[in-house]
Design goal:
Elements: H1 8-25, H2 30-37, H3 41-49, H4 57-67, H5 71-78
Helix pairs in contact: 1-3, 1-5, 2-3, 2-4
Length: about 80
């Protein structure tokens, strides 16, 4: 199966998600947050750096819970505002 290339907007949204998660993680280690979310530290690293710009829905939910974030607010902050 060939995956359709991501649009620039999708890549930007992924980078924004990564920044938000990194900011919410604060001084906690990647390993600590990843373990709390039930994912690998490498997966978290890829999401935070934008190398995995479209993580699975349940991964995002698990990370939001581990970081004490509202999934609604996280989604709203990741959407591009087009003027």
């Amino acid at each position: 199966m060939v995956r359709t290339p991501l649009t620039p907007e999708e890549r930007e949204r992924g980078e924004r998600l990564g920044r938000l998660l990194r900011e919410a993680r604060g001084d906690r280690s990647m390993a600590e947050v990843a373990a709390s979310a039930g994912i690998s530290a490498e997966t978290l690293r890829k999401i935070e750096t934008g190398r995995a710009p479209t993580p699975a829905f349940f991964t995002v939910v698990a990370l939001a819970r581990a970081l004490g974030l509202s999934t609604d607010e996280l989604a709203e902050r990741c959407v591009l505002v087009v003027v």
